[in-house]
Design brief:
The protein is built from five helices and nine strands; from the N terminus they run H-E-H-E-E-E-E-E-H-E-E-E-H-H. With about 240 residues, it is α+β, with helices and mostly antiparallel strands.
């Protein structure tokens, strides 16, 4: 649950289940942008005005990384996610090929993530953790998300809107649309990028609030600041 004053009272819509169930998707292209949220209650009211509320959940992510032998500067990262909703927990293993794609709107450049996402639900996360550890992977970071979700129908399919509290980074709105790899091309990507911007505007958030950096980079930045304040810390800042 997102722990904010009067949060639940503002969530006015009846809960429904999203049509997109990622746990059953083997490989999809995820086109996503995220933006910082400065006025939480106003954003919730805006989302309730046009999108359908689908519930609240928690995500606890552990990232496992390894540097490749072919290119020591290239890192491969997999994620194990514990997702808790309505008191029930599911665990997922996810591998993404990530890239940032730039577009221009009203003369202003912005970026969205265009990720090839491969995900499977796990019955035994410990077995996968043993495999990753014995293969040379190490835990590189962790992240917690406390999420309230909405869905909104577009001509490109269903958009998922997630209002996320991510300690210690603050509140973000993530908007994503999934498409099948065979359907994804440059014109489709540009169309979805513009649709994401339209939804952002409907949510009462300006383009200036878009955050192009990955969460992992934002978390590392905070860890490095803490290390500077406390030189005995073990975080490597480079």
């Amino acid at each position: 649950m997102i722990k904010q004053a009067n949060f639940s009272a503002i969530l006015l819509h009846k809960k429904i289940e999203p049509k997109q169930k990622k746990s059953y998707i083997l490989s999809m292209i995820e086109i996503e942008l995220k933006a910082r949220v400065h006025d939480l209650e106003k954003t919730i009211q805006k989302l309730n005005s046009f999108a359908k509320f689908s519930g609240q959940l928690e995500r606890h992510d552990t990232y496992w990384s390894i540097f490749t032998s072919e290119n020591p500067a290239k890192k491969i990262t997999a994620r194990i996610r514990r997702e808790i909703k309505d008191g029930k927990q599911k665990v997922f293993l996810t591998y993404k090929r990530k890239k940032l794609v730039e577009n221009i709107s009203d003369g202003q450049a912005f970026q969205t993530e265009v990720n090839e996402e491969n995900e499977s639900e796990l019955s035994d996360e410990k077995a996968v953790e043993f495999l990753l550890r014995d293969s040379g992977f190490k835990i590189s970071s962790t992240k917690e998300k406390y999420v309230s979700a909405w869905i909104y129908d577009t001509k490109y399919g269903q958009a998922l809107l997630e209002l996320c509290r991510i300690p210690p980074l603050g509140n973000f709105l993530e908007i994503e649309i999934l498409c099948e790899p065979k359907k994804q091309d440059n014109s489709e990507t540009a169309g979805i990028q513009n649709e994401l911007l339209n939804i952002l505007e409907k949510s009462g958030i300006s383009k200036e609030q878009i955050e192009n950096r990955f969460y992992s980079d934002l978390l590392k930045e905070i860890q490095c600041k803490q290390q500077t304040a406390n030189p005995k810390g073990n975080t490597k800042c480079s």
